[in-house]
Design the sequence.
């Protein structure tokens, strides 16, 4: 008789309904062997209560059940933007989480995901899905073909069978030399220690404040702002998450740091799961950059992950400094799907932004040749007036260059008389 029961979609719209879902959420997590901290009930409950709801967002957690069995949970919320609405995952506002529906493995998984996705496209003008692991969402419909799609790669250090030291011996020789040099410099500067929030929650809270203070300083120097860093909401989120996580939980936030004479010089918020330790956000003291504290922290994080029986996930963006440590990468998919006519413009803007970036990348050799001063000023994050002054200097230099045209070229030398 159970074979005739069809899966049904329900949407959780209130905080009370969300709280009622907690036990079922936990049972579903137990059935999914590999899930990040960002897909747990507590993570999404904190995100809703302290970040999304205060901004006037609407809760829209999609669930799919087959009879009494919970097949899927997709924690979304709907926000009003300029001229349109967007349905996106609940998170810490960084849009850096691995955000995807939580689906029970089994014969009904594909059907449940298809149902949830079809319903999600009816919640708002745009559906935004960030860094979904494995395959992208099965989005269809008349506007689905116009979706903006991108992929990111997360470098991964894979736990070896023979321990960290044997694994480190397989890294590039230059990296190993740098690590030995950095440790010697740190040890000459003072007493070095590696600390974590496990067993010391006060250190975790102190390190969170320190990380975001360094991030804000970095943004100010570059004349930039990022909401979840600049407005303090990221700190609020992680403090609440640390306070709400039971000690010893298998999936939990783990804040780590390197101290020099008990003063933080590098720190990171990590996510511990059953498979990996994710390095979510890291900062270091730029005034002591020559000590290489950031590199030492990375080494300690990888060592800690291996000691815990986990891989270390460097997370999205395959920067060179991560690739030196990585054994392989994992691919994640981001989609912005226009669900209504009003959703076409914001999605088209993303297509245009990517086209501009590709054009800029292709034109860099020409820019380097003709406006080197402008490029240097932008690389130093100079204010607009100085960039404009650099452009004027580049134009003058070009006009006065002997190669800029015959009018500016010197006259040919006279032939010697016979």
Sequence:
């Amino acid at each position: 008789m159970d074979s005739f029961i069809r899966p049904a979609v329900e949407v959780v719209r209130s905080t009370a309904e969300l709280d009622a879902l907690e036990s079922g959420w936990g049972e579903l997590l137990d059935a999914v062997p590999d899930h990040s901290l960002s897909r747990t009930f507590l993570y999404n409950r904190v995100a809703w209560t302290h970040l999304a709801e205060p901004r006037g967002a609407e809760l829209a957690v999609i669930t799919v059940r087959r009879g009494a069995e919970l097949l899927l949970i997709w924690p979304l919320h709907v926000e009003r933007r300029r001229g349109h609405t967007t349905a996106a995952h609940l998170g810490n506002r960084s849009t850096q989480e691995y955000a995807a529906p939580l689906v029970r493995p089994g014969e009904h998984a594909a059907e449940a995901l298809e149902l949830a996705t079809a319903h999600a496209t009816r919640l708002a003008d745009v559906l935004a899905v960030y860094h979904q692991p494995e395959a992208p969402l099965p989005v269809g419909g008349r506007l689905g073909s116009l979706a903006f799609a991108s992929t990111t790669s997360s470098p991964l250090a894979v736990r070896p069978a023979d321990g960290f030291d044997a694994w480190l011996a397989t890294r590039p020789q230059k990296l190993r030399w740098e690590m030995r040099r950095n440790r010697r410099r740190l040890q000459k500067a003072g007493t070095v220690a590696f600390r974590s929030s496990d067993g010391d929650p006060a250190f975790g809270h102190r390190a969170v404040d320190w990380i975001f203070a360094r991030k804000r300083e970095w943004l100010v120097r570059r004349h930039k702002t990022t909401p979840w860093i600049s407005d303090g909401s990221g700190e609020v989120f992680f403090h609440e998450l640390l306070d709400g996580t039971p000690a010893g939980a298998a999936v939990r936030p783990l804040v780590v740091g390197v101290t020099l004479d008990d003063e933080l010089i590098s720190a990171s918020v990590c996510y511990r799961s059953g498979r990996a330790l994710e390095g979510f956000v890291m900062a270091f003291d730029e005034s002591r950059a020559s000590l290489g504290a950031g590199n030492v922290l990375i080494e300690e994080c990888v060592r800690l992950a291996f000691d815990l029986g986990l891989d270390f996930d460097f997370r999205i963006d395959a920067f060179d400094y991560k690739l030196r440590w990585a054994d392989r990468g994992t691919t994640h998919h981001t989609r912005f799907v226009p669900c209504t006519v009003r959703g076409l413009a914001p999605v088209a803007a993303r297509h245009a932004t990517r086209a501009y970036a590709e054009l800029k990348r292709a034109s860099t050799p020409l820019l380097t040749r003709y406006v080197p001063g402008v490029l240097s000023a932008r690389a130093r994050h100079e204010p607009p007036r100085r960039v404009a002054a650099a452009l004027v200097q580049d134009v003058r230099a070009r006009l006065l260059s002997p190669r800029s045209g015959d009018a500016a070229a010197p006259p040919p030398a006279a032939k010697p008389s016979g």
Remarks:
- The first helix runs from residue 15 to 20.
